[in-house]
Backbone:
């Protein structure tokens, strides 16, 4: 029998495999990775510098260890170019591979900022372990770094870089950091805490030009502000990898469209993680991936299961301002109530009847995290 | 006393230290941490932790 085949060896792919093996020890399983195929924790990439961790130290298990542990065949450094849905076959650098069920756990690519200037293509991004290795090497001897994007990853990297004796600039079009997740007052609080530690913010504008200048770069923002920096890191967001699915004729919106069973428009092909849009939800966070992986593993083991999304608070790894955010469910309408504490800030989003929808807790307010989390509405019941 | 590693995010639960901020006293053995407990960093369940050799 052709194996259940997972394309992608990130958290989504490996968690499906691990969960499936809890339910079925023997069903043939193949995992295809376009990189080394080892397992590492992607969330750690944005807080590993402070711990002075090398890429090698971040690798938890090699592909060979994973293969043994999961009783799976792992094809490393293997690209897939096409899915032949009719024949249940994959075409790629390893030739033709047959599958029974296919799981797309392809992840997402960093958005490339639209930049002019002769050094526009020297802007770095960190989206996987190999990127991290390059970034850490590039940091050696640098004194000044600029991060494009003050979202989750941008803020986490800024905080992580604080211990590296660097001048740090954060540039974002919004007027406050984490603008998609936080009300402005909470974003401003996070900004203040990071500023106290030495981060400089350039808000309300984006970068237009990156020119080579001396041993580094000269940045020009759309608002005319200019400054020099040694290294530029882009963290402006992620774009789900949908090309393979699109070319195979699967339904795609922002991500690969799947239903509550993580099933695409082809009954034998599933998708989860950063590449998938689950009934309209695109949630590139750890907890939704774990929920999806458990449901999908059960389905693959023969027990068709809907994914459920309880309220899933996101921990922002900014030790300068410990932050937990539980966004209101998509489509809900509420008002943010802000309570400023001596060493923190509590923001609660409530609907017009006073029912809580979401929260953001910073500093001392994190003490209420456990209690509040249980009061939040589920995202997908 | 042992240490346990979250396989998802790398968070380490140290039995000796416990997690007072989460209501888990220092010296609480892993077996005695409630099953409903989740990783404070990434939110995965207790079942997703693995033991670290020390």
Residues:
């Amino acid at each position: 029998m052709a194996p259940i085949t997972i394309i992608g060896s990130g958290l989504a792919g490996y968690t499906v495999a691990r969960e499936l093996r809890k339910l079925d020890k023997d069903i043939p399983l193949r995992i295809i990775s376009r990189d080394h195929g080892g397992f590492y924790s992607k969330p750690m990439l944005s807080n590993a510098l402070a711990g002075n961790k090398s890429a090698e130290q971040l690798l938890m298990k090699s592909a060979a260890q994973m293969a043994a542990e999961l009783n799976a065949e792992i094809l490393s450094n293997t690209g897939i170019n096409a899915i032949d849905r009719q024949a249940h076959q994959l075409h790629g650098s390893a030739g033709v591979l047959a599958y029974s069920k296919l799981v797309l756990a392809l992840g997402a690519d960093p958005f490339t900022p639209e930049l002019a200037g002769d050094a526009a293509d020297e802007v770095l991004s960190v989206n996987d372990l190999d990127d991290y290795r390059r970034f850490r090497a590039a940091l050696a001897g640098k004194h000044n770094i600029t991060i494009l994007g003050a979202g989750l990853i941008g803020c986490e990297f800024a905080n992580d870089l604080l211990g590296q004796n660097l001048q740090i600039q954060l540039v974002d079009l919004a007027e406050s950091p984490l603008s998609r997740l936080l009300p402005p007052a909470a974003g401003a609080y996070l900004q203040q805490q990071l500023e106290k530690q030495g981060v400089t913010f350039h808000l309300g504008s984006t970068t237009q030009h990156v020119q080579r200048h001396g041993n580094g770069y000269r940045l020009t923002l759309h608002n005319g502000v200019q400054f020099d920096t040694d290294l530029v890191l882009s963290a402006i967001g992620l774009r789900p990898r949908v090309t393979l699915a699109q070319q195979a004729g699967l339904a795609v919106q922002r991500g690969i469209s799947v239903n509550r069973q993580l099933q695409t428009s082809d009954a034998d092909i599933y998708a989860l993680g950063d590449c998938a849009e689950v009934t309209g939800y695109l949630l590139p966070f750890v907890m939704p991936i774990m929920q999806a992986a458990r449901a999908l593993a059960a389905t693959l083991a023969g027990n068709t299961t809907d994914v459920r999304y309880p309220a899933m608070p996101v921990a922002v790894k900014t030790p300068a301002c410990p932050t937990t955010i539980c966004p209101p469910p998509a489509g809900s309408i509420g008002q943010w109530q802000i309570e400023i504490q001596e060493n923190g800030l509590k923001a609660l989003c409530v609907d017009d009847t006073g029912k809580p929808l979401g929260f953001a807790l910073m500093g001392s307010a994190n003490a209420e995290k456990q209690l509040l989390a249980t009061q939040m509405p589920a995202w997908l019941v | 006393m042992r240490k346990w590693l979250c396989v998802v995010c790398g968070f380490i639960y140290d039995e000796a230290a416990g997690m007072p901020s989460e209501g888990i006293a220092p010296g609480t053995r892993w077996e005695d941490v409630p099953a409903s407990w989740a990783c404070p960093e990434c939110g995965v369940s207790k079942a997703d932790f693995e033991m670290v050799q020390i």
Summary: DSSP finds no helices and three strands in chain B. Chain B has one domain: 3-52. The two ends of chain B are 10 Å apart (CA to CA). The interface with chain A takes residues 7-10, 21-23, 40-45, 48 of chain B (CB under 8 Å).
